[in-house]
């Protein structure tokens, strides 16, 4: 399989990490179908790779069109080997001050659309007895941060779903990897970050800190062009990782969280064990 062209389906590939993944897959000779928000479904890469690239419009919230998009993707190249669930955005605001329509829409795009796309692709991969699903989580899907409660909640949901899914589909030769990017130099801290900031509230200090997040855009430590190369390496592995943090910032956050969890477990071990039946 490593020497044959794979077919990738990548959601939310208008720009950023999704576009980087598409470029890397095309560069190694693979076929790529992407979904974009542009109404005409156009993507700049399509003109460069007319024989191996297709682009389809999909608003991630429109889950009723997901099956049709997958069917069209299948019709282009006869199989789907890699699904990259990348579509999403961020919300920065104190949990108490985040309105319901804001966090519900975040879940629709970041979690429920991912689930529906996966459900639509899995019958194809099961028939093939092969496939690889790559779900985009975040550094915030393993280590939660103040001001990003709902973004973390979405990514924690992605992680739990993906971990259970990996065990369900393994007998069919389908692999699952959760990618946890740190801060990449995309527009995530710019247009792709929604905020509900109220500097006059009791959360004034937190709101001021959140207001500064977008100002760091363009100075993130990780290179999006290297992201695509990592995905290409993952899908070539016989035994890929279930979870893969990307970037030194993500690695250090993972280590810090694991250490804190271990310390807390040890500190409260007697109380944790106190509910066991006495024999």
What key attributes describe this structure?
single chain; 279 residues; alpha/beta; Rossmann fold; 7-stranded parallel beta sheet; 9 helices; 9 strands; 15% strand
Characterization of the model:
This protein is an alpha/beta fold. The chain has helices spanning 16-27, 44-48, 66-77, 100-128, 149-169, 204-211, 224-235, 248-267, 269-273, and strands at residues 7-10, 31-36, 53-57, 82-85, 90-92, 131-136, 174-181, 193-195, 243-246. It has a single domain (7-273), classed as NAD(P)-binding Rossmann-like Domain (Rossmann fold). The protein is built from nine helices and nine strands.
Q: How would you sum up the major sheet?
A: 7 strands, parallel
Q: What is the mean pLDDT?
A: 90
CATH uppermost class: Alpha Beta
| Proportion of residues in β-strands | 15-25%
**Count of discrete alpha- or pi-helical segments spanning 4 or more residues:** 9
Termini separation comes to 55 Å
Global shape:
globular
Domains counted in the coordinates: how many? 1
Report a brief summary of the structure.
The chain is built from nine helices and nine strands.
Reconstruct the topology from this structure.
Layout: E1 7-10, H1 16-27, E2 31-36, H2 44-48, E3 53-57, H3 66-77, E4 82-85, E5 90-92, H4 100-128, E6 131-136, H5 149-169, E7 174-181, E8 193-195, H6 204-211, H7 224-235, E9 243-246, H8 248-267, H9 269-273
Parallel strand pairs: 1-2, 1-4, 2-3, 4-6, 5-8, 6-7, 7-9
